Amino acid sequence: MYIKAKKSLGQNFLIDREVLEQIVSTCDIANKEILEIGPGTGNLTTYLLKKNPKKLYVVEKDDELAILLKEKFDTEIEIINDDILKINEESISEQKLTVFGNLPYNISTEILSKWIFSISKNFWFENLVLMFQKEVADRIIAEFNNSKYGRLSILTNWKLNVKKIIDIKPQSFSPRPKIDSSLLLFTPKENFFKLKNPKNLEMITRVFFSQRRKMLKKPFNQTFINAKEVAEKFEIDLNLRPQNLEPEMYFKLTKEYEDLRG
Question: Are 27 and 69 within one domain?
Fold first, then answer.
C-alpha cells in the first residue's frame, strides 16, 4: 500500500535508521507503556517495538495510515485513529506513559502547550521525546537574556525540564522538509510554581513579549494598575526588556496579578 505524505497534515516521514536508533535509545522503555504521536508509516513504531515495551499506543489522525498501521502491526499496537489535539491523554492508560512524537510542525507548539496546561497535580507522562522544527526547539530551550527566549521558553520551564538530544537534517525525512529539526527530551518537574489559572501565565507572557524590544514599563502599565509598586516589590528595573527577566519572575508576576484580582 503506497502512501503519499499529506502536506495538509504536515507529514514528513522519518527514514534515517541511525536517527531512529538514537530516538528509541533516549530513555529506557523496556516493559513500559508507550504513546507514539503521528506514527506515519510506522518506521519509528518498528524500532520502538524492538525495545520490548509493555504496550504501545499510537495516535494517527490520517485514516489511510491508520489502516496501513493495522495491516503492518496488527495486535502489536493499539491504534487511536483521532486528532491528538482532541484526545484526553489521561484516559489512555492508568500507567504513566513515555511519549514519542515526530510532531507535525504546524501544530507542534499547540500540542506542547495543551499538555503543559492540562497538568494540574499529577503528570500522566514520565518522559516526552519530541521532534520540532529546529527554530521552534531553539525557542523552547532558550534561557533568559537570549534573543530567542520568550513565551515558549517560559511556559515550558514552568512544569518541565528540557534537554536537546540531537539536531536532524532534512535528508533524514521523506519528503524532505526545507528546515532542520531537533529532538528534545522533557521530564516533569517534581515541584512547580502553583498558579490559580494557567491562562493567566499565557496572557502575561503574551502582553510582555508582543513588544519584546520595548522596555518593561509599557507591559507593566498594561498589566498592573499599581505597576510602580509591583516593580518595586520584586525589585524590577522597568528600563529592562522582557527577555531580561527569568522564568521564575514571570511566575511570580502572574501570581501577583491573580492575587490583586482576588
Answer: yes
